[in-house]
Amino acid sequence: MAIVKTERHPEMPPPVTQTGVIGWLRQNLFSNWLSSVLTIVAIYIAWQAMSSLISYSFINANFVGATKEDCTGTGACWVFIKARFGQNMYGFYPEDERWRVNIGYVLGAVGLFLVLSDTMKSKKLPAIFLFVIYPVICFVLFSGSFGLEVVETSEWGGLFLTLVLASVSIFVALPLGIVLALGRRSEMPVVRMICVGFIELVRGVPLISVLFMASVMLPLFMPEGVHFDKLVRALVGMSLFSAAYMAEVVRGGLQAIPKGQMEAANSLGLGYWQSMGLIILPQALKISIPAIVNTFIGLFKDTTLVSIVGLLDLLSVVKAGTTDKNWLGLATEAYVFVAAMFWVFCFGMSRYSIWLENKLHTGHKR
Amino acid sequence: MSEAAMKQADSNAAIQLVGMHKWYGDFHVLRDINLTVERGERIVVCGPSGSGKSTMIRCINRLEEHQQGQIIVDGIELTNDVKKIDEIRREVGMVFQHFNLFPHLTVLENCTLAPIWVRKIPKEEAIATAMKYLERVKIPEQANKYPGQLSGGQQQRVAIARSLCMNPRIMLFDEPTSALDPEMISEVLDTMISLAEEGMTMIVVTHEMGFAKTVADRVIFMDAGEIIEQAPPEEFFDNPQSERTKLFLSQILHNA
Ligand SMILES: Nc1ncnc2c1ncn2[C@@H]1O[C@H](COP(=O)(O)OP(=O)(O)OP(=O)(O)O)[C@@H](O)[C@H]1O
Ligand SMILES: [Mg+2]
Question: What is the model's pTM?
Answer without folding.
Answer: 0.86
